[in-house]
Amino acid sequence: MKNKRPINLSAGQILSVNAKSPIAMASILHRVSGLLLFVLIPVLLFVLQTSLSSPEGFSSIFDNMFIRFIVWVFVAATGYHFVMGVKHLLADLGMNEELESGRRAAWISIVLAVIVILASFVWVMF
């Protein structure tokens, strides 16, 4: 019997398949947000060190819109990662294991994450 499962899919093929599934998109974005958190930790440690060094360092850091944007990306990734992490923990407890309830939980989590991301934008940028 010949196996018809695809192998060696390109990134475009993976994204086109996953774009139809909110569960897959939530999971992939959860991994991306974790990667962003990992990559931005050294940058934010430098920002923290500079802001705590002197009053001039503090004002130079937080008057810079690019650095505020980087801080917002970190806060938004943290919020998204937290919301999706709670969704995954609930799934580990046996909730939302069926396809339809899993889709519903993914959509609810995505909506909550968007609210958290927008709130963090207002909080950090203004």
Name the features.
single chain, 126 residues, mainly alpha, 3 helical TM bundles of succinate and fumarate reductases, elongated
Q: What does this 3D model show about the protein?
A:
The protein has 126 residues and is mostly helical. It has one domain (22-125): Fumarate reductase/succinate dehydrogenase, transmembrane subunit (3 helical TM bundles of succinate and fumarate reductases, Up-down Bundle), CATH 1.20.1300. The protein contains 5 helices and no strands. The N and C termini lie far apart (62 Å).
Q: How large a portion of the residues is in β-strands, by DSSP E? A: under 5%
User: From N to C, what is the helix and strand string?
Assistant: HHHHH
Average pLDDT metric = 92
Portion of residues in helices?
Answer: over 70%
- Unreliable residue stretches: none
Instruction: Characterize the quaternary organization of these chains.
Output: single chain
Could you say which overall geometry the principal axes of the C-alpha atoms support?
elongated
How many domains comprise the coordinates? 1
- Determine the CATH topology: 3 helical TM bundles of succinate and fumarate reductases
Q: What integer value in Å does the Rg equal?
A: 19 Å
Major sheet summary line: none
How many strands? Answer: 0
What structural class do the secondary elements suggest? mainly alpha
CATH class: Mainly Alpha
What is the CATH superfamily label?
A: Fumarate reductase/succinate dehydrogenase, transmembrane subunit
SS element count, helices: 5
Distance between the termini: 62 Å
CATH architecture annotation name: Up-down Bundle
